[in-house]
């Protein structure tokens, strides 16, 4: 499963919707817990389905940020067999005091292969990419999850991920 995303636009709605919205909302709602949500038992306590369709949309689209730490840059440099200084110089930019991967004018992340639409640093992709679609902002409510399902064709279908898996990924990401 290659391109696992994702650019943080600050407005997740700006990403393309590739599925029929009614069908997708139905898929999403099917897995919501019937019990009243609580911190111990959130609305997605029964798990949420997600299987990446490898469309690559989440690595492109509207301008955005893919946040990277120094450790993640080191890992990317190692994956590519390049000096970390070169990776930082050529492939990152500073946004509001944080390092982000650059993107091209067409919105593609600098590491998205334009032909295959696969991530060229998949094994070393940043945590932001690893934790999509289970970002705190995406799973905050049924509504935000349904919005996520509309912009990511893999969300709301496929493999059911447990509450523990979802929570672990959300806890690792600050978006
Ligand atoms: S299915 Fe979703 S996670 Fe997979 S590449 Fe497409 S937009 Fe990204
Ligand atoms: S690093 Fe890879 S997975 Fe992350 S946005 Fe760029 S191409 Fe996509």
- Taken in chain order, the helices and strands follow as HEHHEEHHHEH
Main β-sheet, in a few words? 2 strands, antiparallel
How much β-strand is present in the residues?
A: 5-15%
Low-pLDDT residue spans: 1-5, 10-26
Strand order of the largest sheet: 1-4
The percentage helix is 25-40%
Q: Which distinct ligands sit in these coordinates?
A: iron/sulfur cluster
Instruction: Tell me, briefly, the overall form.
Output: elongated
Write down the overall mean pLDDT: 85
* Radius of gyration, CA atoms, in whole angstroms: 16 Å
Number of E-type strands: 4
Distance between the termini: 22 Å
Number of helices: 7
Structural class: alpha+beta
Structural features, described:
With 175 residues, the chain is α+β, with helices and mostly antiparallel strands. It has seven helices and four strands; from the N terminus they run H-E-H-H-E-E-H-H-H-E-H. The chain has a two-stranded antiparallel ribbon. Strands 2-3 form a two-stranded antiparallel ribbon. Helix 1 crosses helix 6 (142-151) and helix 2 (70-80) crosses helix 3. The structure holds iron/sulfur cluster (2 copies). One iron/sulfur cluster (SF4) is lined by residues 3-5, 52-58, 132, 152-154. Residues 3-5, 52-58, 132, 152-154 line the site of one iron/sulfur cluster (SF4).
């Amino acid at each position: 499963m290659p391109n696992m995303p994702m650019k943080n636009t600050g407005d997740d709605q700006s990403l393309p919707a590739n599925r029929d919205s009614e069908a997708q909302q139905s898929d999403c709602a099917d897995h919501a817990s019937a019990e009243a949500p609580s911190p111990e038992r959130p609305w997605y306590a029964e798990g949420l389905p997600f299987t990446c369709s490898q469309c690559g949309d989440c690595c492109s689209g509207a301008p955005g940020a893919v946040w990277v730490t120094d450790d993640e840059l080191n890992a990317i440099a190692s994956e590519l067999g390049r000096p970390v200084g070169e990776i930082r110089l050529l492939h990152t930019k500073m946004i509001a005091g944080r390092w982000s991967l650059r993107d091209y004018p067409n919105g593609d992340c600098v590491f998205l292969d334009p032909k295959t639409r696969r991530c060229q640093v998949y094994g070393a992709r940043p945590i932001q990419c690893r934790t999509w679609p289970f970002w705190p902002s995406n799973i905050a409510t049924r509504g935000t999850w349904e919005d996520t399902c509309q912009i990511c064709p893999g969300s709301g279908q496929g493999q059911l991920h447990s509450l523990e898996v979802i929570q672990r990924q959300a806890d690792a990401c600050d978006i």
